[in-house]
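Risk register update: the risk that structure generation would not scale has been downgraded. Supporting records follow, first protein first.
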Amino acid sequence: MKKRARYLIILCLIVGGIPASAGETPDSVVLLIIDGLGSYYIYPEFMPHTLSGTPLEKIDAPNLIEGDARVINIRVPVPMTGPGHSVIVTGDPAAEPDTLPITTTIFDILHDEGFIALAVMEKGDFSGMRREQDAILYAESNSIDEPVFKVEHQHRPVPTEIIETMEERCSLMPEYMRCAEGAAAYQRYNRFAIETAEDLVEAMTENHPDQRFILTINVGGVDSVGHHTNHVTYLQVIEGVDSDIKRLKDICEEKKIAFILTGDHGMSFKTPESRGGHAGDDYKETPESIHTPLVMSAPNISPKIISGDWGQENIAPTILSILDLPNLLSTDSKPIPIKKYANLYVITDADSVKLYQDEKLIGEEETGRIRFKDLNGTYRILATSGETRIEKTIVVTEDRTLTLNMPGETTKRAIETRHAIGIILILLINTTGIILIKRITR
């Protein structure tokens, strides 16, 4: 069973809407994970080096780094594909593929909200990630030389057009790789996944505009070329991805779909001519291996470059924040403050919840699903249930989720139950003692 703290969830809308200037909530999200893409090779703030300290060339990648928000420092806990993907979708810095089935993921939360989960995954995916998807096109062979792709879907309903699109795309894969050699082979391998994602987004938005979805894309050629060739070819393949993703980003902007681009880990090179690595003892602590890009676009994101130190574990709560959903993940990781507004979600069994700022009543809700919107600053929250009151002061500068459990009838019943159990135990002990005394005195 997934660990879900949802038993007292009372969420969402309170009187009034988010001002038009704050931007609208995107209905869906595209998450592009570029396997092996290190931010040191594309961010203007960084300069990559070999393990011995020799400077390496980098490239201009406007489509990869341009978005509404770009986070400069994203550090991965473990520079490996399995842990990287697991952390990205759980927000848990200790997540591993083996723990994914028992950890709350963004897919679990989005399923509860009516989303469907679609995926296109190349080299580097794993079975736990595949099982989180409602429909997935993935690389069964895990090979670029002889790629074999397969479509799987779960019992949850998926539009017929999506399955048909995935199956049609599978049949087109051999043509992508025909006569491809060197950097071109890796570029075409990546292009197949990106263009498949374009077709899926268009199929969903044109045929099922009211169905919300998350589309996760794992592009595998950048990591593979880093391991098998050298730094120069690695950069050439990144340039190919930069060119190929422009149309996908344009479609997402046109359809008002959130677009998130990141990597699971980076890549390091001993020399410019050597093959790269990221998980070995020589590589796993280098900045080129442990820093990945994070670029995001959505109608409700403020254009900005975000400094400070952030981790891969902050990505999952940030995705939920962009979608205006509370952070119900099994982790304490916080969203990165990138939206034009902040929400306060209240999880409570109170009869009434009031929010004040400087003694001014901001909002009040007696029952139902509570979300206080468009906040920034210090607030006082008052929750009441009968004669019981809970009052807290809270600072809201980014999305927060607050749990307020009222000590009401449930608590009283629990106390009464404990008292009853205690009385029964005392009676049993006394009765047992009397019986033993009688046996001894016979």
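Supporting record for the second protein:
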Amino acid sequence: MDLIVKDLAAIDDQLSQRHINLDPAGYFIIYLDRGEGLIYAKHFINVIDERGLAVDPETGKVIPARGKVERTHTTVFSGRTAKELSVKIFEQTQPCPVTQLDHAAYLGREFIRAEVALVTGQEYVQD
């Protein structure tokens, strides 16, 4: 069983290193509030430049993938479950803040991971 879990983790780790095209509608920072029992998703708008990099529409500066960035979110979504959060973002928000299917699939995976971490007490770190 341990070998299977390690193999699956290795597959996910390898896939996390692949190139992805960024959603021109923006990105999300996902985090938990254990005290409230909620999953939060802060949405930030961005512009994709000619190099395929996300840039701050106000400053024109590249938004780094790692590290702390001081930006103001556009919207904050919250839900008690991955499904509740997904419904709020994809069904109840018009226009939808996600324009690419791969981004939607990624968010669904992350919301499930966040929900599992919330329920089990495990640490959640967004991929």
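Residues 53 and 62 are 7 Å apart (CA to CA). On this basis the risk owner (M.S.) recommends closing the item.
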